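Hello again, I could really use a second opinion on something today. I've been staring at a protein lately and its backbone has me curious. You're getting the sequence in one-letter code plus the fold written as tokens. I'd be grateful if you could look everything over and explain what you see. No rush at all, and the record is pasted right below:
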Amino acid sequence: MDKYLVPHKPSSQNPSKPPPRWSRSLIELNGRFEPNYRHSVSGLLMESYSELRAFPHLYHINGGPCQTHLNWIDNGAFLYDQPSIGKQGISALDFDRKCMILKLFIARVMNLCYVVCTSMKRNEVFIFDISYISSKPSEVLRTRPSVSVLGSNIHKGLTDIASTSLDDSRILASDTYGVINVWDRRMSAFPCLELTTDSRGTLNSIQLNAEDQIIFGAGKRGFVYVWDLRGGRTSSALQSNKEIRHLPLTSLKLSSMLEKIGPLKAQSDIVSKEIHSINIDPSCPHQLAFHFDDGWSGVLDVHNFEVTHIHCPPPAWLNDPGVSADLLYLRKPSWLPINSIYVVGSSTDNGIHILDFYPDSISPSHVDYKEDVQSLSGVKKQDKQNRFVPLSEELLHVQFIPSTVPS
């Protein structure tokens, strides 16, 4: 309202200046970085990122072609009912928080250093004990066989994997037939529980909440599925070696939720899209980030099941009409450990989008963001905007090395 006020005429006399007031920042007073302060300076962190080095894949090794690359070309396009050739190869990376080694589809918490590997071409989970050198897995877990109506075996490749935070004996893996398989390694090499979606669509990504009580899954059909393992038959199933199939507690169609955002619906046609990845915000556990095949990213608030943030870059096929959504590689974005910053590889350019998904309307990606919102806590306001960091090559997966973060 100040812009409607008529300013006072300056006084002809020089008024005496008030004595300076003693002030100290909250950091100096309590020794802690408050969330609002971290967010206010997060722009400086986002500006600091740049490419250090690229490690290209060598398609010719010792004068001969890379066998993995040849298999990818020869077999990927001809497998019956398989994901497209553009979705073959490494689809996820992670770091062991204890051993600090690079992993492919690793269970996050292990008493020992185990590498856990899966593939979209196989229905097996290979567990390698890297405490000794061996090309053979120390343990192999398998999905239960399924038969189609015509009597043929149904192929179930595995797409993503997770483990419970307190007990490394339980491993979960989503498959290409819309099922999350749950193994108890102490009991059997076959799943003790199958979490089904009542759909044959591929599940690309799964996430466990911090208490290992809620499981989220998402994939090709554009739905986020939620299973609740607290109480009832589902809870006891994890302690039984008898196979149990369980439907989700609820399923959420993200395209329907995006239609509730008036300005977005007015600017774009909202259609159902394949979900490449979902990720829980480590600094704000009720925020579940999602990433679509067309490059859009956003946040689903799992407390009230509303989309609170959205980032909508142009899709890859807008610049190149010959590119189909079905031929795009799966992208796996990642959260920074603090500040609710989400990082995703661009679908159109060589680079990454660094997105401010702070859980408040002061975030530039929030659906209720207002340009004139001022920063709280009296800290000097930084420009709130998302960043794009150009890179030398296309980036599909982002992962940050765990480190000690000050409280």
